[in-house]
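User: If only I could read backbone structure tokens as easily as an amino acid sequence. Underneath my words sits a plain record pairing an amino acid chain with its backbone structure tokens. This is the protein in question:
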Amino acid sequence: MQPTLFIADLHLSEDRPDITAAFDTFMSSQARDAAALYVLGDLFEAWIGDDDTCHFNQHIKQAFRTLTNSGVPVYFIHGNRDFLIGKKFAGETGIQLLPEKQVIDLYGEKVLIMHGDSLCTRDHKYMAFRKKSRGWWWPKLMLALPLWYRRRVAQNARKTSALHQKNSSEQIMDVTPSEVDRVMTEAGVSKLIHGHTHRPAIHKFQLGDKQAQRIVLGDWYSQSSVLRVTPQSTELKGTPL
């Protein structure tokens, strides 16, 4: 049986041709043989709007269009770097946009999938920004600005984010266990798949009276991290770039 694949946190950009090359290889090999591909956010280092039609963005969109045209369904959940991806991008690529939390049927098991940034509730500064940026007015304001200005805003945001991560403890930047318990209980699942923290691992823990599992996808800064799931196995593997 064909596997279902999950990826996140590729942070694609023109500045990292090695990541783009790994992405191209993945899309033309593993992804072609998948039953479905789920992209759980931060596909791009920064996405400033569907109207940014630079050559690099067109290249990435064509890779997705080729894959979906081949019959592989692709599902996408927004991350904190690409939450401005909209219906135009979806239409041009053939991907299906999902809400920030989605329960899927994975070979007969209910599984919750999400980007994972909303789980990091101890990072109060980021959570305040997240609340503002996901509101109804902030995206509209940003998309009304000229592209050149949005690029400058994105550059400044990346610098601010890097400084914030450098000055924050690992505990603050990781998920809050009680929030993980809450969202999984609310969704009625015992398995969660997410990205965002860049700490690939398969965690097993007790959730109420059940055994639970939380799978964290890896980023693509130094490896192409892919979760491969079949009815018989679950494999989280990173291939060095």
Summary: The longest helix spans residues 147-166. The chain has one domain: 4-240. The mean pLDDT is 93.
